[in-house]
Each structure stands twice: as C-alpha cells, then as structure tokens.
Design goal:
The complex is a heterodimer of chains A (183) and B (97). Chain A is 78% helix and 0% strand. Chain A has 183 residues and is mainly alpha-helical. The longest helix of chain A has 30 residues, at 96-125. Chain B contains 3 helices and no strands. Chain B has 97 residues and is an all-alpha fold. The chains are: A mainly alpha (183), B mainly alpha (97).
Chain lengths: 183, 97
C-alpha cells in the first residue's frame, strides 16, 4: 500500500488542494477575463506545489514556467490586445437553464469519475511504493524524465517538435490579418 | 495521497467542463480547457508515483500540446474578433443550422 505520510505533509497537501479547488471555483464564476485569468494562475501555482509534493519536482517547475508563466501571459496579452470595451459589453455567462444543465452535467461526470475510481483503485494499483524516489536517487530529478523521453519516447518527442512548428506557423498565418497578407 | 489527488483532479476537471458550458466568452472558455488539461496532468503525476516516470513524460507532452493549442486557439480568436468585433459565442453562430 501507500507509505505512511507525516501529518505535516498531509496537512499541506490538503491545504494546497483546497486552495486549488477554491481558486478554480472562483475562476469559473468570474465574468470578466482578467480576474478569471488571475484566479487560474493561482490554481496553477497550487497545483505546482502539489506536483512537487508528489515527487514530480521538474513537472512542478514546468507548471510554473509554462502554464502560470507563458500560457497565462499569452491569454492576458490577447485580452488586452482585443480591448474589449467596458465591462457591461463583455460576454457574460449563459442563462439559468444553461447553468442548471451545466451543473447537472458536472455532477453526473463527477459521480461517474468517482465510481470508476472506487471500482478500479484497490486491486490494480499498488505496484512499487516510492519507486520514483529510488529512480531519483539513481538518475536525478531531471534525468528521471529525460532518460525515457529521449529513449523510449523519442519518436513522440520528435513529433511534438513538428506539432509546435505547425502551431507556430498556423498562429502566425491566422494572426497576421488581411492587410499584411495583401502584398 | 493517491485517492485525494485523483478526487481533486476529477473535481478540477468537472469545474473546467462546467465552465466551458456556462461561459459565453471565448477566451474564458479557452482558459477552462487549460484547467481541464492541468487536472489531467495531476492524475498523471499521481499515478507516476506508482508506475514510474512514464506518467511525467506524458505530462510534458500534454503541456506541449496545450501550449500549441493555446497559440493556435488565441490566434483564431483574434482572427474572429477582427472579423466580427466580438468574442461572444452568442454572436458567432455562422455554422448553426
């Protein structure tokens, strides 16, 4: 089974879990994009803490750099680029019927996920407790990810670079507009 | 901590789904998609403690894909805004039958 965790660890895990959840709820109830983006950054930071606590230090750093740093800054740039006028003109939420049905869909999904988790977890899961800690001692924090990334998953890694290239090209083509394309 | 991580991840994912359904602002809907992707990342990391580093490698891929998705999606939003002067999905319904 899972190793025993000290109370300090458990307390902070729950603390940052609750922060992440509360920020996510605050994020989803905002009407204007800038406060929503800032709450989402808060969620991402709390999740980065959880990643570090789950022995995924490199992923935690990536979370801060890529999500909270790069992606959210791009979102805020777009919000400011579009210059959406005063808040009353902003697109707000849908009507009550939509909200109710969205809540029902959410509850149904949550129940489904919980049932699946309960049914599958106990017997199939526990393979090697503290496996990653051993890996980290053998390689190091980055090497633990880099070694499979550049050996077992090399093809996927190379395809990812193609994906990024296509995405950059697509973003440039879509973003430059008609005036620049007219030659 | 596995069960707690999975429950938190499920809750975050569902919040993302509800956000996509409830909001009309295209930018916020994109942020909700990012939240869903991150929730899945939490599941990968939680399982990677038991199955080795492959889960974390997949998280790297998910992050790359979400970065690409954000770049292209926001470019599309900018293109639509240039065309229609709005990001309200209520007014962007050309394909509605």
């Amino acid at each position: 089974m899972e190793p025993h965790y000290p109370l300090f660890y458990v307390f902070h895990f729950y603390l940052f879990g609750v922060i992440a959840l509360a920020s996510a709820i605050a994020f989803v109830t905002r009407k204007s994009p800038v406060p929503a983006a800032l709450w989402l950054v808060n969620t991402m930071f709390s999740l980065a803490v959880l990643f570090v606590m789950l022995d995924a230090q490199f992923i935690g750093v990536m979370q801060v750099l890529v999500y909270a740093g790069a992606i959210m800054v791009v979102f805020l740039f777009v919000v400011m680029l579009l210059n959406l006028g005063d808040p009353s003109e902003l697109a707000d939420m849908r009507g009550t019927g939509w909200k109710l049905s969205a809540g029902l869909v959410g509850l149904a999904l949550l129940a489904e996920i919980m049932v699946i988790a309960r049914a599958r977890l106990p017997e199939q899961l526990v393979v090697a407790p503290a496996f990653n800690a051993q890996q980290q001692e053998k390689l190091n924090v980055v090497g633990m990810i880099a070694k499979p990334l550049f050996t077992d998953y090399l093809l996927a890694f190379e395809l990812t670079s193609v994906l990024l290239l296509v995405a950059i090209a697509g973003a440039v083509v879509l973003g430059r507009g008609r005036a620049a394309g007219a030659r | 901590m596995l069960a707690e991580s999975l429950a938190l991840s499920a809750a975050l994912f569902v919040i993302g789904v509800v956000g996509v359904l409830v909001h009309r602002n295209a930018i916020i809907i994109f942020m909700c998609v990012e939240l869903m992707l991150t929730a899945v990342n939490l599941t990968f990391v939680a399982f990677s403690r038991f199955y080795g580093a492959a889960g974390q490698v997949f998280v790297v891929f998910v992050m790359t894909v979400s970065a690409a998705e954000a770049a292209v999606g926001l470019a599309i939003i900018i293109a639509i805004f240039r065309h229609r002067q709005t990001v309200d999905l209520k007014d962007i319904n050309l394909l509605r039958g």
